[in-house]
Amino acid sequence: MSAVVSQANKRRSGLFELLRGSPIMGPFAALVLASIFFATQSDKFLTGSNLSLIIQQVMVVGTLAIGQTLVILTGGIDLSNGMIMALSSVLMTGFAVQSGMNPLLAILVGLLAGVVFGLLNGALITSIGLPPFIVTLGTFNIAYALVRIYTTATITNLPSEQLFLGNTFSIAGTEITYGSVLMVILYAITWYILRSTPAGRAVYAVGDNPEAARLAGINTKRVLTAVYTVAAISYGVAGLLLVSRTGVGDPQAGQTGNLDSITAVVLGGTSLLGGRGQILGTLIGALIVGVFRNGLQLMGVGSIYQVLITGILVIVAVSIDYLSHRGK
Fold first, then answer.
1. Distance (Å, rounded) from C-alpha 257 to C-alpha 310?
2. pTM of the model
3. Any idea what DSSP says for residue 161?
C-alpha cells in the first residue's frame, strides 16, 4: 500500500513540476485571479451569456494573434496584420455586394489578398534581409492606402454566407457563435502543428538561433516565408470573423489590430526575443484582455482606464520576460 501511495505522490509531484515549469501557468493564474476578482464585483460576470460575450469580443483579436504568435516565435514582429485584416474584409464584402461576385468566391479573394501580403513580407525579409519591423510597417501603410483607394464608405447589406460565423447555437441556454468555435479550432490546429510536427519545431529553432538552425539543415528562409504567409491567412480569417460579428465591411477597422494582437501574445508569455512561448498562452492572453475590459465595464470604469490598465499589464509582462532572460 505504501508503495502505491508513494508512486501516486511521485506522479502528483511530477505533474506539479511540469505545470509549474510551463510558460502558460503565469498567464493562466492571472486569468483565474482576474476572473475571481470581477466575479466578486458583479453578479453578471460569471453568467453564461457574459462569458460567451467575452469570447465573442476576443475572437477577432484572438485569431489575429495566432499569426502574430508564429511571427514572434521566429524573432520577428508583424505591424501590418490589422490592416491586412481590414483589406481582406473590405475586399470580400465589396466584391460580393458591389460586384455581384459569388459570396464564397469573394471570401476566397479576401483570403488571397492576405496571402499576397504574407508572401511580400516574407520575401522582403528573407531575400533582402530587411528587419521585420521596417518591412511590416511599410506593408501596413500599403494595405491602409489600398483600403482607402478601394472604398471609404462602410459596405452594408452583406449576403448571409458572409455572416454565417456570427450566427449562434445554444448550449445549456447559452448562445455561442460559430466564429468563437472556429477560433478555438484554429488554436487547436496551431497547437498541434507547433508541438508535434517538424514544421513546428523548425519555427522554434529559427526563433531561438537562426544560424544554428541553418547549420542543422533547416531552410530558414523557407520557414520564415511560410510563417509570414500562414500568419497572413489567419489575418484574412480574422477579417471574415470581423465581418460576421459587425455585419459590415468597415474600412476604418484594423488600425489598432497590431497592438492588440501583440498585447495578447505578450500577456500569454511568448517572448519577444523569439524561440519561446506557446500558442495556448496567446489564447489566454487574449482572454485576459477580454476579461479585464468586460469586468471593468461591468464595474462602470471608463474605457480610457481600461486602455490604461491594459498598457500596464503589457509593460509588466514584457519586464518579466526580459528579466528572466537576463537572469539566465
1. 14
2. 0.90
3. G
Q: Would you state the cell numbers that stand for residue 95, as one nine-digit string?
A: 466584391
Q: How many CB atoms lie within 10 A of CB 123?
A: 17
Contact 285, 307 (CB under 8 A): no
d(CA 67, CA 55): 18
**Other CB atoms within 10 Å distance of the CB of residue 6:** 10
Nearest to 277 by CA among 79, 75, 125, 61: 75
DSSP category for residue 1: -
Cell matching residue 121: 513580407
- Residues, the chain: 328
Q: With beta carbons less than 8 A apart as the criterion, state whether 130 and 140 touch.
A: no
Residue 88 to residue 108: CA distance in whole angstroms: 9
**145: number of Cβ within 10 Å:** 12
Q: How many C-beta neighbours within 10 Å does residue 11 have? A: 10
The radius of gyration computed from the CA coordinates of the chain, to the nearest angstrom, equals 21
Q: Is 94's pLDDT higher than 80?
A: yes
Cα 124 from chain centroid?
23
Bridge partners of residue 168, in order along the sequence: 177
Query: Mind listing the pLDDT tens digit for each residue in 199-240?
Result: 999 999 999 999 999 999 999 999 999 999 999 999 999 999
